[in-house]
Amino acid sequence: MVSKWQRLMLVVAATMLLVMMFLPGVTVAAVEWNPDGVISENEYDSQQQIGEVLIFTRIKGREIMMAVQAKTGGYISLGIDPEQFMKGADIIMMYVKDGKTYVEDMYSIGNFGPHPADTAQGGRQDIQVFGGSEAEGITTVEFKRKLNTGDKKDKPLKKGDNKIIWAIGYSDDITMKHIKRGSGTLVL
């Protein structure tokens, strides 16, 4: 049984919450970013559906935290700022295998590939922090990188419109051709 005092406290708390929700300048606090493959409420500032890939983003200073999610048990790839088809795209290849997350920083040298690792082309692996999960046919990979890495094999991400391509593979074998692909604009 709830006492009059408890009822009064509940009413006061509910009223304060409602007032805070409608006061100008009051925002919900973002939670700490954690690359665990679980997208928590308020972990990202925005999300966009681009084709069959859901992309979550959060910019903090000169870095961007992203989560990429798709209905697949295989790989997901994003290509940033392709010049023609795949050529010149900064490719981020991601997958989860046996509970371990893999993220490769690549650069496409032809219209339809290949896209060797940046490190094989004189560049760097600029995605150092990442994590992921695979559950119920959905792969989720979270990672962090600088908006502009300074690497000649990476393309900078900028506030505003960013041209991207995406692909989904049916397996974790990144040498296998994708089963779905598309393009769009990532707005930051």
Fold and architecture overview:
With 188 residues, the chain is mostly beta strands. The protein has one helix at 4-22; strands at 46-50, 53-60, 63-71, 76-80, 90-97, 100-107, 129-135, 138-146, 161-168, 180-187. The strands form 2 sheets. A 5-stranded antiparallel sheet has the order 1-2-3-8-7, with no helix packed on it. A hairpin with a 2-residue loop joins β5 (90-97) and β6 (100-107). The protein is globular, with a radius of gyration of 20 Å.
Shape: globular
What is the CATH top level name? Mainly Beta
What is the residue-averaged pLDDT?
Answer: 87
Succession of helices and strands: HEEEEEEEEEE
Within CATH, the superfamily carries the name Cellobiose dehydrogenase, cytochrome domain
Architecture (CATH level 2) name: Sandwich
Low-confidence stretches: 8-19
Number of domains: 1
What distance lies between the first and last C-alpha atoms, to the nearest angstrom? 50 Å
Which structural class best describes the helix and strand composition?
mainly beta
Number of strands: 10
* Biggest pleated-sheet summary: 5 strands, antiparallel
Oligomeric state of shown chains: single chain
